[in-house]
Specification:
By secondary structure, this protein is of the alpha+beta class. The protein contains two helices and four strands, in the order αβββαβ. It has a four-stranded antiparallel sheet with strand order 1-4-2-3, with helices on one face.
Length: 191
């Protein structure tokens, strides 16, 4: 019978010796700390970029707002005056009444005796059709669409207002970009 080889005895641990594990080593803690710092830095960078993007968008929004300021007659001074009263000043309207009004800063109507073309309709109706227009540099209406604030659902009345808006001619402005404006047609019941 062969004799067994003695196995070395594992050193016995006394209760006064602390058990050492990988998690309490200094190198593991340093790595965790570095990882946490890198994550915090990445979050801070992402937040900074988000703030910069929001500020850029706000600046862009304000620039757009300034570029169209007054396009619909909201500026002060004679160029933006949209008065229609019999007293006072204004660059548009008729104190004796008219079929409608328009807001297109710096432009005057040159067709139809200087007044808006009237929608052609034989229907008795009461309400408002608002038409958003785009006018080119030569004063021609190149686009007309029914705008918010219209309270007439009748398609034939809306189409008549669109046709009248397209027939209206404004003064030309050399080198001008396309300009947006608004024409409001007021219909009163007539029998």
């Amino acid at each position: 019978v062969p004799t067994p080889t003695p196995r070395p005895k594992a050193p016995s641990r006394t209760s006064s010796q602390p058990l050492q594990t990988q998690s309490i080593e200094q190198s593991m803690r340093l790595e965790e700390t570095r990882r946490a710092e890198a994550e915090a830095k990445a979050r801070a960078e992402a937040e900074r970029r988000a703030r910069e993007e929001a500020a850029r968008r706000e600046t862009q929004r304000q620039e757009i707002g300034h570029s169209v300021a007054g396009a619909f007659g909201r500026q002060s001074g004679a160029a933006g005056s949209q008065g229609t009263a019999s007293s006072g000043t204004g660059n548009q309207g008729n104190p004796n009444g008219s079929a409608g009004s328009y807001a297109l800063t710096g432009r005057t109507i040159v067709s139809n005796g200087g007044i808006l073309a009237r929608p052609s309709t034989s229907r008795a109706i009461d309400g408002v059709v608002r038409v958003r227009i785009v006018v080119d540099g030569s004063g021609r209406v190149i686009q007309a669409t029914v705008a918010q604030g219209t309270n007439i659902a009748d398609t034939s009345i809306r189409n008549a207002a669109l046709a009248a808006a397209r027939a209206t001619r404004f003064n030309s402005v050399a080198g001008a970009d396309d300009q947006e404006g608004l024409i409001t047609y007021r219909f009163k019941i007539q029998s």
